[in-house]
Amino acid sequence: MIRICICDDEQLHSSKLEKIIMDSAGLYQNIELDIDIYESGKSLLKALKARNEEYQILFLDIEMGILNGIEVAREIRKIDKNMIIIYVTSYDNYTMESFEVSPFRYILKPIKEEQISKVLLHAIDEVRRNNQYLFFKTQNLNYQIKSETILSISSEKGRIIHVVTVADEFSFYGTIKEIEEMLDPLSFIKVNQGTILNLNYVHIVSGTDIILTNKENFAISRGQRKVVKDAYNNFIKRRIGF
């Protein structure tokens, strides 16, 4: 689940933004979205500081009452360095002032459904890249590998898993099915019965093969060729903002 909050002192804007986000939820495969709304920066900060709530994505209005969006973001950064902050504003003259809080995007009011959907898709991709790990155990040691560093995962005899990362290689007991369930389906694709590849490291896709940036070549099974082609095309579209 990805938790999203909206902080805006105008209820009409908050409700409209919430509806657009929920209407867009179907675009995000295998992701459940949970949305909370705050009508002031003060109430949001109170919830965060009390550790009652934790959010990955924040849609934050700049022009609010006692605390404006810049001041709220400064306080949030003392608590959470990684929260994705998306400013929603009627003005574009806050850009320089907001640099210190590392906003992810700016959205100008009046908000448009297509714009929100596109920004949200990029934000969700960012959350999943930053927070996803592969966990496994080998020789009584527990490992935690950031998924974005994985190039390929392959199975030997159905029970031994080989993982190749940008820096290391690991082998351990497990199944491809178990591993597949831990991975982001937007970034990883199963190319044949025993191989999963990270789309971020794909160099060339032909009709029957995939070559990764490390020059490794993998065969695409006949039944997966259309699936792989569609997944890679959609991956590229997301990367360039379509």
UniProtKB/TrEMBL annotation:
<dbReference type="InterPro" id="IPR011006">
    <property type="entry name" value="CheY-like_superfamily"/>
</dbReference>
<dbReference type="GO" id="GO:0000156">
    <property type="term" value="F:phosphorelay response regulator activity"/>
</dbReference>
<feature type="modified residue" description="4-aspartylphosphate">
    <location>
        <position position="61"/>
    </location>
</feature>
<keyword id="KW-0963">Cytoplasm</keyword>
<dbReference type="Pfam" id="PF04397">
    <property type="entry name" value="LytTR"/>
</dbReference>
<dbReference type="Pfam" id="PF00072">
    <property type="entry name" value="Response_reg"/>
</dbReference>
<dbReference type="InterPro" id="IPR007492">
    <property type="entry name" value="LytTR_DNA-bd_dom"/>
</dbReference>
<dbReference type="InterPro" id="IPR001789">
    <property type="entry name" value="Sig_transdc_resp-reg_receiver"/>
</dbReference>
<feature type="domain" description="HTH LytTR-type">
    <location>
        <begin position="134"/>
        <end position="234"/>
    </location>
</feature>
<keyword id="KW-0902">Two-component regulatory system</keyword>
<dbReference type="GO" id="GO:0003677">
    <property type="term" value="F:DNA binding"/>
</dbReference>
<feature type="domain" description="Response regulatory">
    <location>
        <begin position="3"/>
        <end position="124"/>
    </location>
</feature>
<keyword id="KW-0597">Phosphoprotein</keyword>
<keyword id="KW-0010">Activator</keyword>
<protein>
    <recommendedName>
        <fullName>Two-component system response regulator</fullName>
    </recommendedName>
</protein>
<dbReference type="InterPro" id="IPR046947">
    <property type="entry name" value="LytR-like"/>
</dbReference>
<comment type="function">
    <text>Required for high-level post-exponential phase expression of a series of secreted proteins.</text>
</comment>
